[in-house]
Amino acid sequence: MTKLSAVAVALGLSASTAFAGGYVAPVVDVEPVVVDTRPASTNAGLVIPALLLLGVIAAVASD
């Protein structure tokens, strides 16, 4: 009877530690998606002066 009670106590103690804390649902952090809505620009403000500079260089080189 003593061996049976010792086994019952050992099983009871090990079973209670196996379920300690219970179930906790996992937390999923969702990061918001950031979309860049600005249109892509080609920076036309530099194209015209660059073409004028090339024209001046070509005019000077042809003389």
Taken in chain order, the helices and strands follow as HH
Estimate the global geometry from the Cα principal axes. Answer: rod-shaped
Structural class: mainly alpha
CA distance, first residue to last residue: 119 Å
Key terms:
rod-shaped; 2 helices; transmembrane helix; mainly alpha; signal
In short:
This protein has 63 residues and is mainly α. The protein contains two helices and no strands. The relative contact order is 0.06.
Could you characterize what this model shows?
Keywords: Membrane, Signal, Transmembrane, Transmembrane helix. It comes from Paracoccus alkenifer. This is Ferrochelatase. There is one protein chain. With 63 residues, the chain is an all-alpha fold. It has two helices and no strands. The relative contact order is 0.06. The mean pLDDT is 79.
